[in-house]
Amino acid sequence: MLSRGLKWLAGGLALAAGVAALAGWLAWRDYQAFLSTPLRLPAEGRVLVVEPGMSGISMVTRLADMGVTRNGWTWRLLLRLEPAIIQAGEYRLETGMKPADLLGRLTRGDVIRYRFTIVEGWTVRQLLDALAADPVLGAGVPPDAATTVLPTLVDGHVNPEGWFLPETYSFVRGDSYRELLLRSHRDMRAALEQAWAARHEDHPVTSPYELLILASIIEKETAVEAERGDVSGVFVRRLRRGMRLQTDPTVIYGIGEAYDGDIRRRDLVTDTPYNTYTRHGLPPTPIALPGRASLMAAAQPRPGDALFFVADGAGGHTFSATLEEHEKAVKKLLERTP
Fold first, then answer.
1. Which terminus has fewer CB within 10 Å in the chain: N or C?
2. Which keywords fit this entry according to its UniProt record (predicted)?
């Protein structure tokens, strides 16, 4: 009887072991299928926001609420087998992404990065308007930022015009517009220092700030890369000779919001601090945000004898050494203008 009972017990244990092995194999098969199956994502993907301190289980719960995956034991096993410190942030989920891919992205902190471009020639007002319109950065920009925020970012300069370097800046959700502007200002200071160190020895400007002013005028006068040195050369030669710069962009800046797209004779004779037709020397502040090319052009004007330039009607300018040549170029432009 005992022998027969032992046989039954042994048989039962063998059966239980077999059932356990089968269950384990089936579970492992299900787990491998889970790992190899992409998340349920639409063609445009989804965005997952992970708050600071969120646990892996909480993250899976959020994914399940989004309909991206099922909240089951397979996720808990993955999180146990591959312990991870999930970093907070905003993550893009693309089609084809598998559970381990997502976990790796969250561990690396490979968050969504946005871009904001500061355009060469923008004024500070245009910069703030673009920031306010940005769907990620814009919520924190106050209407009076030009007078209340920007002066605190530019080392005490009362007028922040010109002090932000045009570049494309990368940022993540949660970064503030102030942080982006501080980066831009630091970049401008570095670029201006580089240009100032590279300036010609006999340059008439007497400070880096004057160089920034000159660069801003060059930026507004031409968008043609090859012309910047020539435009700079004209202005530098005029400064050396005590001639007025007579540049329309400074007049426009002085008109301000009243500018309607046309410069009239009364605008050229109405004196303002920015009217370089009525005043000698540089205006009191920059008139725009100059890029690196304009900064270097201001520091290293191209040699020559030109003292005048006018639009050529084809996107560039005609440069002249004498007033007579300049008047002929103006006449030619008027003949081409419909």
1. C
2. Cell inner membrane, Cell membrane, Cell wall biogenesis/degradation, Lyase, Membrane, Transmembrane, Transmembrane helix
Q: What pLDDT was estimated at residue 287?
A: 97
H-type alpha helices, the chain: 2-36, 56-65, 73-81, 99-108, 124-133, 145-148, 150-153, 177-197, 208-221, 228-241, 248-255, 265-269, 292-299, 323-336
The three-class DSSP label of residue 53 is coil
For residue 302, the 8-state DSSP code is P
Give the residue extent of every domain in the chain.
Answer: 36-112, 114-190, 201-336
- What distance in Å separates the CA atoms of residue 188 and residue 127, rounded to the nearest whole number? 14
Look at 96 and 17; give whichever has higher pLDDT: 96
pLDDT in tens, 167-206: 999 999 889 999 999 999 999 999 999 999 999 989 999 9
Q: What is the CATH number of domain 36-112?
A: 3.30.1490.480
Q: Is 272 exposed, middle or buried (0-12, 13-18, 19+ CB in 10 A)?
A: middle
